[in-house]
Write the structure tokens for this entry.
Amino acid sequence: MIAYGYRPGVKTTGGAHLPLLDLATGAVLTAVYVGFARMDAEDGQAYFTGPFWLGCLIAAAVGLPLAVRRRRPLPVLGVILAALVAASFLDLVREPYAAAGLAAYLVGLAEPARRSVPALALAPAVAGGAVYLDAAVVTPTEDPQGALGLVALVVLVIGGAWSAGFVVRGRRAEARRRQRLRAERALEEERLRIARELHDIVSHNLSLIAVKAGVAAHVGDADPREAVAALKVIEETSRSALAEMRRTLGVLRGQDAPLVPAPDLGGLDALAGEARRAGVDVDLEVRGLETQGAAGLTESLRTTVYRIVQEAVTNVARHAAPTRCAVRVVADAREIRVDVTDDGPPAGRGRPRRRLPGGHGLMGMRERALLYDGTFEAGPRPEGGFAVSVRLPRDREHPV
């Protein structure tokens, strides 16, 4: 494959066989023109009458530059055109400028438009003019009108070869652009996936720590035992968070980190228990998975449901605790429905409630739902509190 960003003096990349093929093609054309130099008038056409060494020199100038056409497309085209013009005036040409066509193809393929387009305008004009002048002036015994067909053929060979190279260049450039866009899209999706995972790991644990730290600070003097219990929760949660962060960073760095099972629907009870320790009275209800079977769900979909519930409950603990929260995970043959609602902070606390689209957690839940062509809704409830509602089709595989 030929490189596209051609610069003079810089070797284009490609298979090792391509330069050898160019060398062989140049050698064949050189041999053909050496044969033209040895032809006589037996076929009734004008023939070369100069010294044989001159014919060999012109033959070499026509064919041999093709061996380096991938390195220097424009200079090669110029040398070949000059040699073919001389060959035409010396009656050494008996083919429609094939060497110029091969050189013009590389000009259209490898040179930028600001150089290849002027070459397209000049090369056919020079070649066609040389053929016509040879027929009309240098060799007036030939019919000038009959030479117009040969002129048209020469122009077609050079212009068609250049056009083919230019079209191939455009198609390859478009293919590279699409490939670059796919790579950028894949990188962006992976970056977002890592950001969501890190947010899920850190946000839940730090929210629990922050809530319990506030409890310890508030009741430290009045109820030392509750303060000690809160500090114990902080210690356990911190250790768990650090261990999980180390495992995650080890995986990202390519280290042999110990593997742990991905979060699953079986961890919802433990998740509700952690939220209760943070002051959220969680009412958890899971329906349909017993009859429909969680085994019918892909692992990624089960993890997604867990992460959505985790983030929604974490937001309740962060923004509304102490409060009541209802978590409903209902599955049927068509979809999984996740609804998390809370009653809001106790009266008089006056904590401001977040609204879409603020918050990385809400964005993460929305992104997870959209990955499965699902729906996501979140916002304040008319009767107070906040609600999160997600619908995920069961039959969708993870697209990433």
Q: What stands out?
A: The chain has eleven helices and five strands.
